[in-house]
C-alpha cells in the first residue's frame, strides 16, 4: 500500500451533521477498499476561495492522509465526483522515502 494525501473543499453552507456524514462515508470507503486511514491534519475550517466556485466565495477545507491501493483512490474519486457537497478535491500519492 502507498501513502496518499486527500485534500477536499466542502460547500460552506453544509450543516455539521452533513459534514460528519460526508467524512464518515469517505472513511468507510477507505476501509472497504483495503485502505487504512492514517490521520486527519488539523481542519483548516472555513477559508476564502481564491476565486468563486459555483457562486461560493468560501469553502470548508480538509486535509487527510491514508494508506491505500489504486482501487481505493479510484473509488474515492468516483464518489466525490458524484456528490454535490464537494467544491474541489485532489488525491496525491506521496513519494516513498
Describe the protein's architecture and organization.
It is built from 2 helices and 5 strands; from the N terminus they run βαβββαβ. The mean pLDDT is 93. Strands 1, 2, 3, 4 and 5 form a 5-stranded antiparallel β-sheet that branches. It is globular and about 40 Å long. The chain has one domain: 2-Layer Sandwich (Alpha-Beta Plaits). 31% of the residues lie in helices and 45% in strands. The longest helix is centred in the N-terminal third of the chain and has 17 residues. It is an alpha+beta fold and 97 residues long. The two termini are 14 Å apart.
The CATH homologous superfamily is named: Ribosomal protein S6/Translation elongation factor EF1B
Shape: globular
Low-pLDDT segments:
none
Strand content: over 45%
Our Rg estimate from Cα atoms comes to 13 Å
Q: Please give the alpha-carbon distance between the first and last residues.
A: 14 Å
SSE sequence, one letter per element: EHEEEHE
For the record, the count of structural domains works out to 1
Mean pLDDT: 93
Q: CATH fold name, please?
A: Alpha-Beta Plaits
Q: Estimate the helix proportion, in percent.
A: 25-40%
Secondary structural class: alpha+beta
